[in-house]
Amino acid sequence: MITLLAIRHAQASFDADHYDVLSTRGEDQAKRLGHFLASDPEFGFDRVLCGDMHRHRQTLAAIELAFQGAERSLPQTRFDADFNEFDHGAVIESYLAEFPDHPEFAGRMPAKSDRAGVSRFLASALQCWAAGDLEHRLAEGWKAFDARVARARQRLLDESQSGERVLLVSSGGVIAKLAQAALEVSDTRTIDFNLSLMNSAISEFVWREGHLRMRTWNTLPHLAQHAERQLWSHF
Q: Quick one: CA dihedral 88, 94, 98, 100, positive or negative?
């Protein structure tokens, strides 16, 4: 059996011009996540994998720093761009171009301050993408994204030995694809999993007898206290 601890990156800078960098809240989330993992001897890893986006690297750096502070070691990280997130910007632009007369969105994304509106918009755009309606507009459509994550997942499996524990830092779309493979759910449900996943959340999977299965989904033990709920975020 191979155990995989998959972590979604901490909050990126949704309200800034440059998204792919942790926000102040994201830095706090990542720091607390790192201390939680480093303080529990159960969380020892034989392999560390990470997407190649800046927010992935920053989240991992906070974990590494916490392990160093606890005088614990981590294996050398292998960065793998196949674990990168899909291009949200391209999906959004393609969706707006495909449906310029949408009755609710009318050719524009809701203001970033309208979190509820943004959530509805993202759900609509991503479901359209997963349905294959934007394939002709995107360099990486849903099918290509699915194939890329499947390739990364198989490479992870091929490189790992039975009994190993693997740490992966990636993004919501990638981890949702792992959940889809584990639970054998539809593309529609996969988008629901993607949108449900919170920043810095931990999900655990196992490979047993050739099958990927889910143990836990979207947990925030490092932000479990009532006062820490203010640090919860989806984007």
A: positive
Q: What is the DSSP-derived secondary structure letter of residue 225?
A: S
**How far apart are the C-alpha atoms of 33 and 30, rounded to whole Å?**
5
Q: What is the per-residue pLDDT across 125-175, written as a single tens digit (0 to 9) for each?
A: 999 999 999 999 999 999 999 999 999 999 999 999 899 999 999 999 999
* The pLDDT of residue 210: 82
Domains and CATH numbers, the chain: 2-84+162-231 (3.40.50.1240)
N-terminal to C-terminal alpha carbon distance within the chain: 33
Say if residue 115's pLDDT is above 80: yes
Residue 73 to residues 44, 104, 114, 184, 220, Cα–Cα distance (Å): 9, 51, 42, 35, 23
The per-residue pLDDT for 19 is 82
Return the C-alpha torsion angle 160, 162, 187, 60, nearest 10.
Answer: -50
Which of 164, 8, 11, 198 has the alpha carbon at shortest distance from 75? 164
pLDDT digits (tens, 9 = 90+) for 3-60: 999 999 999 987 766 789 999 999 999 999 999 999 998 889 999 999 999 999 999 9
d(C-alpha 83, C-alpha 170), whole Å = 6
